[in-house]
Request: fold
Amino acid sequence: MNRQGTLWLLATAVILWVIPPATADASPDGGAGCGGYDDMIAIVGFVLFIGTGFIFGLIDERKRKRLDAEMKVTVPEETVPEAFIDAQVEALQQEDPGFSRIAMLDFVYGLWQETLHQMGQPGLDRLRPFYSPEMMRLLREDSPMSAGSRISNVVVRGIRLVKLVRLEGEPPREDLPGETPARMRALIHLDTSWRLKSQGEPATYHGQLVTVEFERPVGVRSRPPGPFAVTCQACGAPMPHERLGESCDHCGQGYGSDLFNWRCTEILRVTDDAPWLAAEIVYRPVVDPGFTLPARFSPSLAKRLAELEREEPDFRRQLRARTIEVFDGLFTCWNNDDTEGMRPLVGERLLGTYQYRLGGYRLRGQKNRMADLQILSMELSRIERDRHLDSVTVRLRASCLETTAIISTGKLVGGSDRHPHRFCEYWTFTRQREAPAAPPASCPKCGAGLGPVEEASCPHCGSRLYAVSGQWELAFSEQADSYLQGQPRVPGDGSSWRRL
Reply:
C-alpha cells in the first residue's frame, strides 16, 4: 500500500472512532441509542488505528532497509569510456600482419611475471635485452625486497593494452646527431600481486598497479605467439643462463639494437597495497556496482560477428554451450579447490590468478564457496581476429550464494548462504586459428626436454605448451565496473542480436 492509501485508511479509522452514529434506536430506559453499537464502533476504530500505525511503521522500516540496500549498490558516477583500440590495432596489422593484441598481452604478462620473480636475484640480468638501460637500472636499484627476501606466486590479476600509437621520426639534432626512426609505442596497465618471504618473517602478500610503456621501430615484425620464454626476440634462440653478452650467440643480433623488437622504456608504479580485503557477512542481497552499468561493446562487433557466422553458421550456439561449460566447470573446480581441473577451461594467465586466490584462502584457514550458481544473461561485447588467434568477449551476468567460512570450525565469516550475490563480468575467450606446425622439443618455461608431445601442457612444470586448435579457452575475466573500454549501449539500438 502506498503512503496516500495508508493515510486515507488512518483518517477513516479516526472518524469512525470519534464521531457517534447519526441514528440510533431508543433504549428501554429512554437513554441514548444502543450502547453496544457505539462500543463496537469504538473498538473497531481503535483496532484500525493501532493496526494502521503498525502497518505504516512496517512499511517505513521496509523502505528504510530497501533504501539502505539501494545505497550500497548505487552505480558510481559514469565516466566517459575509452574507445576500443581496434582501429589502432588494425592500422598496425597493415604494416605488421603478424601482430596480435592478445599475443602482445601474453608477452608483457610473462615478462613482468619473470621480472618480479628475478628482482634482487642474479637472473635479472638475463632480462636486460627487454628493458632500456635506464629501466634496467631502476629495476636493480628499486627492488621492493630486503636482502635475503624472495618474491614468489606472482600473478597479473588484470592487464590491458590502453594505447597503441605511431611516433614519427625526427631529423638529426645537435644533441642527437643520428636520425630518430619512426616508432610504435604501446601503453599497458597491469594489476599485479605477489607473495614476499623474508628471513625470519611470515610471508606477506602485496599488490601493485603498474603502467608500462614499450617501444619498437616501425617495420619490425612480430614473432608468432607462444608462452613467454627468455629467448632472442630476433631469432627465438634461448639466451645463455651463465653469461649474457651484448648480442645473440645464434643470429648475432645486438641486444641493444632497435631490431630486437619490443623493449620497455618506462615503468610507472601507481599504487602499492595489500590485495586482500577482510571478508564481511552480509544480511541482504548484494548487487555488484557493475551489474547495473550499461553494456559496453566494440563498434566493429557487428562486422566481426557477420564474418564469423559466414564461416561458422552455428557459432553462437557453440559459443553459448562453451560459455556454460566453462562457467559450470570453473566454479565446480573452485568449490573443490581443484586448479588442475581448470586447465582444460582457462589459459595459463588466468589459471595462475585462481591458484593465487585459492592459495590465499588456504593460507588464512578459510574456504570460499559459491552455491546456487545461475547465469542470468550472456551478451556479445567484442570480437577480434588476427593471423594467429580469434578472441570473443562475452558480458556475463550471474548470481550465486557466496560464503567464506573457517575450515576448522565451519564458522561463517563472509557472505551469506541465504541472500544472493549478483555480479557482472566480461569474459574473453581465445582460440588458435591453426595448430602449431611442430611440437616443441623442450618446454620454453622450464627447459625440460620433451618426448612425443601428446598433451597441451608440460609434464614437468605444467605450463601450457600450445593451445588446442579450435577450442575456446577463457583467457581474461574482468569485473564489469573495471571494464571501461568500448561504448555504452544506447537503448533501442537493436541489441537483441548480440545475445547468446
